[in-house]
Amino acid sequence: MKKKLFAVAVIAVAAALSAGIFVGCADVKGVGEFAPKAASEEYRQQVMNSSVAYENLEWLGSGDMISRYGSVKEDEFSINYGVGKAAMNIAAKMEGMGYKPMDVSIKVNEEGYLANYGTRDISGLMTYSTAMQGQVGVNALYEKTATSGSRGQIIIMSHFDNLYDTVTSGATSVTAEGAYENGAAVATMLYAAQLLAQAETEYDIIFAFFGSSVISANNTLYYSWDGADAFLAKLPSLLGKEYNPVLAINLWRLGGENLYMYSADNQTSYNNYFYAVAEADGIDVSPVPEYKHAFSESFATNILATSPSGVFHAGLMNDSIYFINEGIPTLTYMSLDWDSGNEDSNPESPNVAFTGSDTLNNMILAFKGGEAGEQAIKTQLNGVALNIVNAVTGENSAMFQTAISTAREELKDDYSALYGLSIATTVLVWAVVIGLLIAAVILRGKNVTKMASRRPPQGPSVSNPFTEFDKGSPFEEFDDKNKNTPSGNSSGSSGSDIFEGF
């Protein structure tokens, strides 16, 4: 009976905790509850038929742009080559579109190297210490102020660094341009910036190009996301009293098999809103799977940031993790096979990210090659840019405001649910352990009782089965001394010993 009561108690506690996990997001608006306006057919055709994003991708894999490894010795960082040159070129593109640099800058000497008392200020770039001691990375930061007043900031971000000319596992030198990780995302971000340059917005828009997403050391890759971390630490002081990030849009690993938009492990209204806009414009976006193929923080590569749930999956393996940890609403566009994290689910098509195979040509081949492959990539990159622009500007601005207004509360509920899941799991494990211990004690007690009941009856009223043999010494018939000695003392001197002959 006690065991049954204990089992019922454990089940009740587990059920109560589990029920709490899914409480709190009941008011989330579904995709069907939004009715956003599709972009005009003329504008849609203009965006979707453009080659700008694809040309940006080709540019990122050529000339000075191909070499942009994101962690450099401080005394070797220069704006004339490597990641410093790449950042300068991105900055030039943004300024060419009419964007102004944020209030960050670096000082360089006449040769272009970092110098505390340099002769030249470079606006829009910020350097920071990376996870590698004595090394620095660089971000390029630009902004567009709201047309009239401001409801806060929308951050559009991607990391532009790659592993070109570095050595990774197996002592393999990477000579690829990082088209998939993360050139296609940067190319799309630049195209979205071009589309937004002339648009009216109710929000300030910040464009953040991050360095130092992944670092190679001792033939091992380390996820660091140092650029995102440094930017987020700097942002409150940059914006001052205007600091109010309402949404961080992250672009990562575009140009793969399935396009996803991930906001949180539970649904959010704003995520569903972006899906509704995509549906209105005929953009093919896959729903995030219910089972997210989560794995522990202690997996092969080194994670330097925590996750809300204590585990990682494809939606959290990118620069957005720092924003998620700060409770900032985040939406990540990514194109991959969710379970493996590779660009597609074909087992014969191994992961190209962070390898010498990460080229635009291989991306094209993944889409069956030739013109069809090029067009598939263009369609996806252009679709992402269109989705961003149509969701936050024009006739959909008011609906975006409605969708994003409850974002923080919904995320708070989601994080509470994740915390509840962690607590529930811990309690359940301990309940099972305690239950097993109690069961073991109960069973042991019953076994002891059963063993005691099987012992021969004890006490004076019970006859001894050996009574008839209990009549003195078993050797008394051989004990001549006892027979002849009155005292029965075998140590006496008289009488004969049966062993005296020996």
What does this 3D model show about the protein?
- It is a single chain.
- The chain has 502 residues and is α+β, with helices and mostly antiparallel strands.
- It has one domain: 3-Layer(aba) Sandwich (Aminopeptidase).
- It is 38% helix and 15% strand.
- The chain has 13 helices and 18 strands.
- The strands form 5 sheets. Strands 1, 2, 5, 6, 7, 10, 13, 14 and 18 form a 9-stranded mixed sheet that branches. A 3-stranded mixed sheet has the order 11-12-16, with no helix packed on it.
- Strand 11 and strand 12 (220-223) form a beta hairpin.
- Helix 1 packs antiparallel against helix 12, helix 3 packs across helix 5 and helix 7 (269-280) packs antiparallel against helix 11.
- The longest helix is centred in the last third of the chain and has 47 residues, at 407-453.
- It is globular and about 85 Å long.
- The model is unreliable at 12-25, 465-470 and 474-502 (pLDDT under 50).
| Secondary structural class | alpha+beta
Strand content: 15-25%
Total DSSP E strands: 18
The CATH topology comes to Aminopeptidase
Q: Specify the CATH architecture.
A: 3-Layer(aba) Sandwich
The coarse overall form would be: globular
Mean pLDDT: 84
> In total, how many domains does the architecture comprise?
1
The CATH superfamily is: Zn peptidases
Low-confidence stretches: 12-25, 465-470, 474-502
Question: In DSSP terms, counting alpha (H) and pi (I) runs of 4 or more, how many helices?
Answer: 13
Kindly provide the radius of gyration, computed on alpha-carbon positions and rounded to a whole number of angstroms: 37 Å
Cα distance, first to last residue?
72 Å
Estimated helix fraction: 25-40%
Sheet with the most strands?
9 strands, mixed
CATH class: Alpha Beta
